[in-house]
Design a protein that fits this description.
This protein is about 20% helix and about 25% strand. By secondary structure, it is α/β, with parallel strands linked by helices. The protein has one domain: 60s Ribosomal Protein L30, Chain: A (2-Layer Sandwich). Strands 1-2-3-6-4-5 form a 6-stranded mixed sheet. Strand 4 (about 100-105), helix 3 (about 115-120) and strand 5 (about 130-135) form a beta-alpha-beta unit. The longest helix has 18 residues, at about 75-90.
């Protein structure tokens, strides 16, 4: 899949790195380019019997305006949620379309400080969630990384 050939709104979104989907799935490789490490990876796939599924991986709390990562996990979580929301918007989706989220953190004890941010970000959507404790990230300053899986929802105003 390429940003140029798919004709989607993603081709106009320079902050999203497109990841290809292979027959065996996608693998998470170490990123040698530090700029790519700070950009989410986007995949769109059709799942048998379901609508298109959008998966945005490697969403971090990198703040482009300040050129770095906030020092606290909760601040990085807030920024990661904003970055994820921006990436979803580029795909024509919102946080309300998220059906699953995977949180990768190094410090599980600090994660509860993110709960109010998560409630505000997802509202009534309440996606399924997985919390994974990791030893390290590719970029040393990263404290949290998100993986968002979204499906276009059939809202009440679009039903026949």
């Amino acid at each position: 899949m390429s940003a140029q050939g798919n004709g989607s709104a993603l081709s106009a979104a320079p902050d999203i790195a497109l990841a290809s989907v292979t027959a065996t799935g996608s693998s998470r490789d170490r990123v040698s380019d530090p700029d790519l490490a700070n950009r989410p990876h986007f995949e769109r796939r059709t799942v048998a019997g379901r609508e298109n599924e959008v998966r945005i991986r490697r969403v971090t709390g990198f703040d482009r305006r300040r050129g770095g990562f906030p020092s606290r996990l909760s601040e990085q979580c807030r920024q990661a949620l904003m970055n994820g929301s921006d990436s979803l918007a580029a795909a024509g989706l919102s946080m309300q379309d998220v059906v699953r989220v995977v949180y990768l953190v190094r410090d599980a004890d600090a994660f509860p400080a993110c709960f109010p941010l998560l409630r505000d970000a997802f509202g009534d959507a309440r996606p399924a969630a997985t919390l994974r404790l990791v030893c390290d990230f590719d970029v040393p300053d990263v404290k949290i990384e998100l993986e968002l899986i979204a499906r276009p929802q059939l809202h009440a105003d679009h039903r026949a």
